[in-house]
Design goal:
This protein is an all-alpha fold. It is built from eight helices and no strands. α2 packs across α4.
């Protein structure tokens, strides 16, 4: 089926939250002093939560597109979300914050917006869901690899600014937080691109 202007606008609407997150990550990397001091730790935790979302969203999506009664769908989605929320307890304890749970559900909703738009309504919900999961997994793994092995500049995160963050724990993201900001910008930007193009590179075409 030919792509219409309305189709394109729906795809862009689905991609908008990802592009917005990519811009926030990029701005936090380039000019962190222009943002709230808590933004960098928030992005770090968001990328950890997104790892859980990449795994959980497809299972929730499968329940949503199933032919079960609506009550059972809701119950199953809540059960799956509750199970994965257990993993967020560790993040909450490590960062002494409760909002990882809110972020988890917000990011999950963002990942499932593709089911509300064109391809899902055209009877391609399962194809779209699989494409969304594949794009998310590939973008996440690729982003982690690239931002871990490549030399990346500090940009706005000089030693004094990093020290002012008072990040706890250890690891590459704690010692060099600009890497997680670069990762967030790359990941959400790439994912937004896939959504904005309607996953055309991943969703198989219908036979004519």
């Amino acid at each position: 089926m030919p792509t219409t202007t309305a189709d394109t606008l729906r795809d862009l609407a689905s991609a908008l939250p990802d592009f917005a997150l990519a811009v926030v990550c990029l701005l936090a990397w380039i000019a962190p002093e222009s943002l709230s001091p808590g933004v960098v730790p928030w992005i770090l935790l968001t990328m950890l939560v997104e790892f859980v979302v990449v795994h959980s969203a497809p299972f929730m999506g499968l329940q949503i597109v199933s032919e079960q009664p609506i009550g059972r769908k809701i119950r199953n989605v809540v059960f799956i979300g509750g199970f994965y929320s257990i993993f967020l307890l560790g993040f909450s304890l490590a960062f002494h914050a409760w909002w990882p749970f809110v972020s988890f559900w917000a990011l999950t909703a963002n990942r499932l917006t593709v089911l509300l738009f064109r391809q899902a309504r055209d009877g391609r919900a399962h194809d779209t869901l699989k494409a969304s999961w594949g794009a998310g997994a590939v973008c996440y793994l690729f982003g982690v690899f690239v931002t871990t092995v490549l030399p990346l500049p500090r940009l706005g995160l000089d030693s004094a600014f990093v020290a002012s963050l008072h990040l706890t724990g250890g690891g590459l993201w704690i010692d060099q937080p600009w890497r997680v900001l670069a990762f967030g910008a790359l990941y959400f930007g790439a994912l937004g691109f896939f959504e904005a193009t309607g996953f055309r590179a991943l969703v198989p075409k219908r036979p004519s």
